[in-house]
Amino acid sequence: MCLKGENISFGYKRNNLILNDVSISLDRGKVLGLIGDSGSGKSTLCKILAGYENNYQGKVSIDGKEVLTKGYNPVQLVFQHPEKAVNPKWKMKDILNEGSNVSQDILDSFGIKKSWLNRWPNELSGGELQRFALARALGSETRYLIADEITTMLDAITQAQIWNMVLDIVKERNIGVLVVSHEKNLIKKLCHDVVYFKDINSVRHY
Amino acid sequence: MENKTEINAKGKKGTEALLKVEDLSLSFIQYASGLRQTELKVICNLSIQANRGEILAVVGSSGSGKSLLAHAILGILPSNAKLDGKIEYDGQELTQKNKEDLRGKEIALVPQSVTYLDPLMKISNQVIGAVEEGKEGLMKKLQREIFQKYDLKPDVERMFPHELSGGMARRVLVSTAVMSSAKLIIADEPTPGLDEKTLNETLSYFKDMANKGCAVMLITHDIEAALKISDKIAVFYAGTVLEVANVKDFKNDGENLRHPYTRALWNALPQNKFQAIKGHQPMQDEVVDGCIFYERCSKKNELCSKGIPQFKKVNGGVVRCNNVS
């Protein structure tokens, strides 16, 4: 049971590949760290794995099957800036339940207060919004979570709060997590295993 | 005033305050419903001081009002902002007019994001800015020297902002501050999302500026980055400073730190205990009577719920907490 990306190549221009023949595999229930220089294509790889990007070469498979284009995607991506991932003109409760109805359990474990549900996104801080983004992404059908620098903009206490909650949930539900971060200490603390981007990607960037 | 003497006393020998902020409060007037107005308090009773040749880190969580402090010093707050308290620069009170005269010349901002660059203007024109007639050649030469020092290739000056990588954009933003020969540099979150090498490079630029005698105010939520280069750390929480600590106080279990919040922040780092305390920073519209940290504090007593604790000088730093002696 794993999320697999095989021989993936991607570029916006034909002669300038961002990813060249990259292969990565993430097992269910494992926490895998991904480290690389800025501009090396980490976020692009995340987008491809989560189905945000279509024009790539290579193959992405989930538990041995091809990715379906319809329905709930078992691979969910959470971004660095939650304020860019919510609709500013929707109330938080609508944002939260857009994809699927998020259970009260999840809300409790992320410490999302009832009073926040009636607020607009600009009335919450980054840490509070990121809790919503994670609660939304951890629906019952989620099998893999891709965390692209999700706590980079947060202070240490909020970072520890959020990661402790996420780790509990993924352990309980046997979800595989890909952690992208520049912070080596965080990766060391969270992950079972680490991949370095330069090892899996042979293209050099300037 | 009591606060003032205490804060002055903490300065090292031979260092001089370039910027002094005393009892600063900032609120926004908002329309609640219809014509009813409310006042949203975002910064209250804030006092800090930045010395020449030193880096003062202002560390705090998102939404604690760190950037607003920078904007208040530069005078770029929106029109519904109401500012109280005193800001002094080089012994002179900073009025709105003063701020407008000084910013970009003596006080420079290194903004957080690349979006502060004009997307339709070439890099060199943005770095040089508006120059007096006859000085263009001189400034161009200076700009080339600075670019060379920061390892920016000559063709960068003709590029547009979208052609730069994150690290290059950061160096361009820093070079705008160096160009202006400012004495006070305010850097607003200059580090997030940078890889380790670029991060250390960026930090060293600020250290250079301090070594040349500038006062640097480094606003960040990254306590680790702050510890690498700063002289003092001001810990910001919900619009006020709870503690000003020395870098050497951050070690072991944080037993030398004075405020419970600072200690919690230190112990939450992944390389330390990765331990999170419960609760949230109070929202700006919540009214808190006593200590702003009351609800989450492990050492609270009855006194703490009544009135804001006064600044106390403890062990070469200052702290706003009743339970420290």
Describe the structure.
By secondary structure, chain A is an alpha/beta fold. Helix content of chain A is 29%, strand content 24%. Chain A has helices at 42-49, 92-96, 104-109, 126-137, 156-173, 184-190, 197-200; strands at 2-10, 19-27, 31-35, 57-62, 65-66, 75-78, 144-148, 176-180, 193-196. Chain A has a single domain, classed as Rossmann fold (3-Layer(aba) Sandwich), CATH 3.40.50. Chain A is globular. In chain A, strand 1 and strand 2 form a beta hairpin. Chain A has a five-stranded parallel beta sheet, sandwiched between helices. Chain A has a four-stranded antiparallel beta sheet with strand order 2-1-4-5, with helices on one face. Chain B is α/β, with parallel strands linked by helices. Chain B has a domain at 2-104 and 231-320: Rossmann fold. Chain B has nine helices and twelve strands. In chain B, the strands form two sheets. In chain B, strands 6-7-8-3-9-10-12-11 form an eight-stranded mixed beta sheet, sandwiched between helices. In chain B, helix 5 packs across helix 6 (166-179) and helix 6 packs parallel to helix 7 (196-211). Chain B is globular and about 65 Å long.
